[in-house]
Amino acid sequence: MSLKPLLILSLCIAIAAHSADTRAWGPRGHELVAEIASRELRPDVKKEVERLLGDRADLAMREAATWADEARNEPAFRNTGSWHYVNFPRGQCQIDRTAQCRDGNCVYGALEAQVKRLQNRKLKLADRAEALRFVIHFVGDVHQPLHAGWKDDRGGNDKQIRAGRRDGGNLHGFWDGDLIRRENTRVREHADQILTPMPKLDRTWNAAAATDWALESCQIVKRPDFYFKGVDLPADYVSTFRPIAEQRLVAAGYRLGNLLNHVLSF
Questions:
Q1: Which UniProt keywords apply (predicted)?
Q2: Least crowded by CB within 10 Å, which of 27, 32, 63, 99?
């Protein structure tokens, strides 16, 4: 094989590895967050969402929820990869914007910036619609524990696992999809199944909300039973962590709805 094909192959592998580091929940998880949030919207805010996105609020928000993952592969958005996550030193759930989020290039910094864009009614409709798509997505991202995980294993991407007879996956990917998957279930039905009242949940959007949500995610990763020795998934891992993953999805949906009610109200 000549040098040129080898270089191309190496570049493809590097791009794939980088892409894996910035995905959270997978399409279904993000759609669930959007579906739950759409049910929380006040009538005037729902109309504004429909004006910005051009469709019925629940449908438009579910479609918008995955846009940021798709857009980052386009030339205009290739600088947004680091906006999907924040890395902490192992075992240290503490905010340090200089070390973690220089120039706002992390999930909590990006969420804060896009909320400000969305609030700015002087911007063009297309710019505010773009900001709304980012906000919908990043609220989901920051609630996925491994998007606020350890830097040394790239948020669980380097933790190889074997679930039953299935080999070759990693812990991050397992949390993205397999952990929350329900077979033959549509998004609305899936949302109904996991949606439970959370009376103690702080839904308030304020200046500290994005960092607080990231720290909540980090504390889950910090649990002593979150990581495990070897590659075989413990027998009780799903029964332990699926309810937690579903709680994070529900929290993200409630909080996204409240955030939009706050920033889009007239």
A1: Disulfide bond, Endonuclease, Glycoprotein, Hydrolase, Metal-binding, Nuclease, Signal
A2: 99
